[in-house]
Amino acid sequence: MGPLIKKARVLVFDDISALEDFALGKWMAMAREAVNRKGTFAAALSGGGTPVGLYRKLARAVEPSLWPKTHIFMVDERLVPHDNADSNFRMMDEMLFSKAPIPKGNIHPVRTDGPPELCAERYASELFAFFQPRKGDMPVFDLVLLGLGEDGHTASLFPGADALKEKERLTAAVPDEKRHARVTLTYPVLNSARNVFFLVAGEKKAEVLERVVERGDPALPASAIKPENGTLLFLADSGAAVMLPVKMKNLQK
Question: Total structural domains in the chain?
Answer without folding.
Answer: 1
